[in-house]
Amino acid sequence: MTRPIEIPDSFPDPGDVRGKRVVITGASRGLGAVLSHAFSEAGACLALVARSEKDLKDLADELPGHALALSGDVTDEDFNEAVADAVVDEWGGLDVWIANAGISPMVGGPRETDPARWRQVLDVNLTGAFLGARAAARVMGHGGRIVFTGSVLGERPRKGLAAYSASKAGLTALAKGLALDLAPAGITVNVVAPGWFDSPLADAWMRTPELSGEIIGHTALRRWGAPSDLTGAYRFLASDASAFVTGTVISVDGGYLLT
Amino acid sequence: MTTDPRRVVAVLGAGGALGSAISARLAGEPATDVVLSDVSEGALAATVDALPDDRGDVVTAACDVSDEAQVQAVVDLAVERLGRLDVVVSNAGVLSPNGRIHNLTDGDWQRAFDVNVMGSVHAIKAAVGAMRPQGSGSIILTASISGLTAWSHAAPYCATKAAVIQLAKVAAVEYARDGIRVNCVCPGTFRSAIHDELPEEALAAIDARHPLGLGTAQDLVGAYSYLAGEGSRWTTGSALVVDGGYAAP
Question: Does A258 lie at the interface with B, CB-CB under 8 angstroms?
């Protein structure tokens, strides 16, 4: 006879982030700002991270919930450690670190790409995420969540964006590696890989009809994503419902990767 | 008796653009004898006509890969006539009718499954029967880039080619200890008889989807040669994509 399965009294809500202490990097603009609103409205305590102090203050003022504004550079390890400490000082712990800061300069082919530019993209997008995860792992307890903003370009690069694409592919491997490293501590590490959505980084594409048409043609749902299309995946990965999810990539791309 | 220095290759689905190119390439490699088979005797004859002059022994047989006994007969022929079996290329496949899922019949699915999936299963079963006692062998399945990306209006083809990729991986694990490697090649769209009727604009559109342009069967044979040879001796369970960059962007 098979063992009867135990039905729990309740099931975790996949969007429930109430009371979670959450760091969001790259919070001041684009997806980061939308995530900040989504998490704040859902009752999370937020530490907003970006370079511009003024942008962060303005954002913090708009949010319905309590938010710390911590300006600095994610490529600086001391800054990341200070963010982790500030969250612990304020709320007694840290539950979720969303490494979302990223840059995407149009750099062209390898001969047009200044090596310094390459290093900058890798520094912000990949090393910045690593340093954030490193700081988070120091103060997070069992149940901690680290989420990286990847990209479909990590799997399907685009001409002229090799540095960005490589940095985003690197995040996938980084998440998988760290998921193994941090599993014994009960910390999960995952990636949300957005497709092409309306954001300041994608402005140049959206505004060029030919490029925009190409992207829509490649996206099965035949439209650009809206930032609000993406927040559900982040909230899921931050919630108790995703406790057994680690080392994975959740694509939110309207079907871009299908073809 | 000394160890046989010759290599014996069997190609299932040796007719058609790709089958012919694979056969010509492998038959022309040094110290290689081949068994060529196809469901169409006419296509098989055309392949034999196109073989290079400088080649080893050639044996042919008609074979419908959806019938296990016929595939077994091809392998038996290789062992009886040529003494051993080193490489099997399972290249027979069928496209499915052009249609969305709700317009396709169970018969369409069954046909794709019988040839593409069961044909590969039969090839592996028969091949390992000959290769396990030797303690060596390389099995190469023709999958498709459509097993990795979605092609609209081609669900049976895509699903069965995805199954072939997975079949290669499982077989690779199951027979590694027997010294048998199992890999697949995932071709992108390449120029073949099915394109002959297409207007230039349609060909140009297909061409534009491939960063390196629309390929030909000749662009694919290097992958088969590699997977058949010693150079790939530590490669098993892999899906080698040869698609002119189609799946990259």
Answer: yes
Q: Write out chain A residues lying below 8 Å of B150, CB-based.
A: 220, 258-259
Q: Which ranges in chain A belong to alpha helices (H)? A: 30-41, 53-62, 77-91, 115-122, 128-139, 162-182, 203-207, 209-218, 231-238
CA-wise closest residue to A86 among A38, A40, A139, A39: A139
Determine what percent of chain B is predicted with pLDDT higher than 70.
98
Question: What residues of A are in contact with residue B248 (Cβ under 8 Å)?
Answer: 156-157
Sign for the CA dihedral angle at B94, B95, B100, B104 comes to: negative
Task: Give the pLDDT confidence of A103-154 residue by residue, as tens digits.
Answer: 998 788 999 999 999 999 999 999 999 999 999 999 999 999 999 999 999 9
Q: 3-class SS at A155?
A: coil
Cα–Cα distances (Å) from A41 to A59, A66, A178, in that order, read: 13, 10, 30
Please check whether the domain covering B7-242 is classified as CATH 3.40.50.1820. Answer: no
pTM above 0.95, yes or no: no
| Predicted pLDDT at B1 | 42
Would you state the structure tokens that stand for residue A183, as one six-digit string?
């599993």
Q: Which amino acid is at B48?
A: V
Could you tell me which of B156, B168, B145, B16 has the C-alpha nearest to residue B88?
A: B168
A50-89: string of b/e by CB count within 10 Å (b at 16+)?
Answer: beeeebbeebbeebebebbbbbbbbbeeebbbebbebbee
Biggest alpha carbon–alpha carbon distance for chain B: 61
- Check A156 against B151: CB less than 8 A apart: no
Bridge pairing between strands B87-90 and A188-194: unpaired
Q: What is the dihedral of CA A233, A235, A237, A240, to 10 degrees?
A: -140
User: What three-state secondary structure class fits B178?
Assistant: helix
CA distance A247 to B81: 52
Closest CA–CA distance from residue A51 to any residue of chain B (Å): 32
Residues of chain B found within 8 Å of residue A156, distances taken between Cβ atoms: 247-249
- Of all helices (H) and strands (E), which one includes residue B80? helix B68-82
| Pair B208, B202: CB distance under 8 Å | no
Give residue limits of the domains in chain B: 7-242
Pairwise CA distance, residues B110 & B96, whole Å: 10
What would the two tokens of residue A213 be? 């048409």
CATH of A21-194+230-250, picked from 1.20.1250.20, 3.40.50.720, 3.40.630.30, 3.40.50.1820, is 3.40.50.720
User: What are the extents of the domains in chain A?
Assistant: 21-194+230-250, 199-228
Q: Do A259 and B149 touch (CB under 8 A)?
A: yes
The nearest CA of chain A is from the CA of B42 a distance in Å of 35
> Could you tell me which chain B residue has the CA closest to the CA of A161?
B249
* DSSP states of B112-134: HIIIIIHHHHHHHHHHHHHHHHH
Q: Is the separation of the CB atoms in B243 and B188 below 8 Å?
A: yes
